[in-house]
Amino acid sequence: MIEELSFLERIQEAYLEDATWAPETVTVNNQPVSELSRSEFESLVEQIDSRPRWFRNFQLAIPASSPYETETQVLTLQNGVSFEQGGVTEMLSENDEDSADRAGRISNHFSDGEHREGVELIFEALGISDIDELELSITVNKSHIVEDFCGENSVGISDADVQMWTSKETLGKWIGRSSVEHIIDRQFNDSTTPYHYFLENEGVEESRFLGFVSAHSLENGRTDFLPVSCQEDYRREQEILSSVFEGTKFSSPPVSPLVFDNAVIREVYQSVFIFAATACLASDYSLSGDSFEAETKTDRHHTRSEFDFNESSDVSFDDHPLNDLYGLLEQVLHDDGPSSLNHWHQAVATHCSSFTEISLKRREIVHYCGFLQEEAAKQELEQLQNTVEEAFELTRTVANSLSEASQSLTSDLQKVIITLLAAIVTNFVLILRYSDLHVLAPFSVSAIAAVLIFYFPIIQNEIDETQSVMKNRTGDFIIYLSEIRSHVGSRVFDLEKIEDQHKVHLSTAFNSLQNARQTTSRIYLLLVFIWVIIIFYGFIIVADSTFVGLQNWLSGLGLQTSTDQGQGVIKITILVSTVPAIWLLYKLISYHRASEAQFLSCSMSIGESSNDPEINFPQIEDESTSMDEIDIDFFENATPRHYFEYCPPLLAVLFISIIVIAGAAIYVN
Q1: Which long-range contacts does 439-445 make (Cβ < 8 Å, 24+ apart)?
Q2: Where are the beta strands (DSSP E) in 430-559?
Q3: What is the pLDDT of residues 113-123, one digit of tens each?
Q4: Most buried residue, 158, 204, 289, 324, by most Cβ within 10 Å?
Q5: Are the CB atoms for 310 and 290 separated by under 8 Å?
Q6: Closest CA to 199 of 11, 329, 33
Q7: Coil vs helix vs strand at 50
Q8: SS3 sequence, 448-484?
């Protein structure tokens, strides 16, 4: 296929200065056809007729003799090459009596596809006419040529903007006639990646970003830099540029200067490269057409330049300064982030009064930037030392807070448990062994009901508040540690030890919290169970001879099974017990309706425990974290969350038993 494109090389040789070269088209307007040899023009006509989609316009015309007349067409483009017979007839009308016959023979040649013979007769007619020259106008559709070339050679394009150029000179012609702003908008926008291949490979050096390969290499598969791979590398380099400028007050240029990765490309795209390189080292810049202004300020220094890319004296560099500038930009854009970019700006402002001096003072700039980075590193280490000390202090504070909360909760629970158990068990033993039930039963039932209704909600609230304190302290720790990591920790210091230490404290606090919840729940269940025993025991006494076998067995154990006095008090106690029992049953059912806890899916085993819980510690990100972003839910794994969630079916059965016993007591004499 490359041989078919040789007509473009001939157009370049004949009309390099007069043609308009663009990424999508090549346009020649009203130029003398004599710039092409007769054989070259004949080959061009044949090519147009065989590949008409490669051309948007073609016209061979007799120029107008005056501004008030129009040109006369001889050949045009109409699904191939079309001969306009009237043009030749007019051309020969005054010099050849047989002009109509000659025009007819030319038309027959073109109709039969004999384009060379037809062109020969046109030039013969031109030789015997009074017309000095015919004018050629042609527009080549390079976009269609690229489609056919890549399709026939199985070259993947993807989103790349593949462009065919005859040589780097024609690319240079387009760049020279276009403003820098237009070149950037056309070639280096966000949606496409420019990829160049050339019919002439002289002076062309391949690039992993922009292609710059020869058509022969692309056709024969002798290049590693294909459109898709170049597109990936180009976008990756653009992402690096964006990451360097992210989080700074500086504006990144629309194209990374590092995509101009060899001397040939920097020479061809010199104005764009200088703009992009200067913009990376400027605190502020503006571009309008070919006018470019850039400046960098510090407290004591100021660098400023104004470029007019139309004036070659403003931006003329040879290879060596451009290579030095590129080497400097490799260090700037592939360093470690925003703080480094600020150091480069300071170094440029300190050593250069104009941006044109950068390549000449590269060594001084690099040295001074290194000095600034060393000073910044020293300050960062000092800050790190203070920060780490604060982090350890925070860890100790949080640990003490968690420990105090856990110890306080445990101590309070122990006092309550010991007091309640001692009083109730002692009272129960006295009732069963020595005292009359009618005296102590009302007191015991009243005490148990009062504790269950009034005191246990207080204990539950204290446990919930302790959990809230643990959660808030953990949130404070995560926020502070994330701030450290976002500034210095992730780059200089490994904070995993502090995080691991905090996990140990959290595990201890979690175990204390879970132990408090389980102990409270078990005591609650035990008190309800003792309540049921007292009510049932009182019912046996009130029932008198109803349960003879059971009464005899209890008497054999030395327990009181009957009484001559106080049966009414015992019966009233049993009946009154239904009031707190119904209330607590209602609270149990209401809790499960209002909460996410499922009645039958809660803890069913009295012995259920989790001595070694798995804690999913919240992930501390490298970036700064706000309180709204923290989701500390592992404390919710301390179960049961409420004493109503501990064996709820058994609790319901015990409360219902009290109510049933009271109902049965009504019918006992």
Answers
A1: 439/566, 441/534, 441/538, 441/569, 441/570, 441/573, 442/569, 442/572, 442/573, 444/534, 445/531, 445/534, 445/535, 445/573, 445/576, 445/577
A2: none
A3: 888 888 888 88
A4: 204
A5: yes
A6: 11
A7: helix
A8: HHHHHHHHHHHHHHHHHHHHHHHHHHHHHHHHHHHHH
Cα separation values, 92 from 75, 95, 98, 124, 175, Å: 16, 5, 8, 11, 44
DSSP-based three-state secondary structure for 607: coil
Angstrom distance (rounded) from CA 601 to CA 136: 90
Query: Is 422 in a helix, a strand, or coil?
Result: helix
Q: Which tens digits make up the pLDDT trace of 621-655?
A: 545 455 455 555 656 666 777 888 888 888 888 88
| Upstream peptide bond of 254 is cis (omega within 30 degrees of 0) | no
More confident residue, 474 or 182: 182
Q: Name the most confidently modeled range: 25-34, 98-107, 389-398.
A: 25-34
Q: Please give the structure tokens belonging to residue 167.
A: 């040589």
Positive or negative CA dihedral for 595, 597, 603, 608? negative
Nearest CA among 148, 194, 145 for reference residue 174: 194
Cβ atoms of 440 and 523 within 8 Å: the answer is no
The answer to pTM > 0.90 is no
With beta carbons less than 8 A apart as the criterion, state whether 433 and 558 touch.
yes
- Residue 287's alpha-carbon distances to 91, 134, 278, 412, 438, in angstroms, are 53, 44, 11, 73, 101
The larger pLDDT score, comparing residue 611 to residue 382, is at 382
Q: Is residue 23 a contact partner of residue 187, using CB atoms and an 8 Å limit?
A: yes
List of residues 6+ apart from 448 with CB closer than 8 A: 424, 527, 528, 530, 531, 534
Cβ-based neighbour number of residue 659 at 10 Å: 16
CA 302 to chain centre: 37
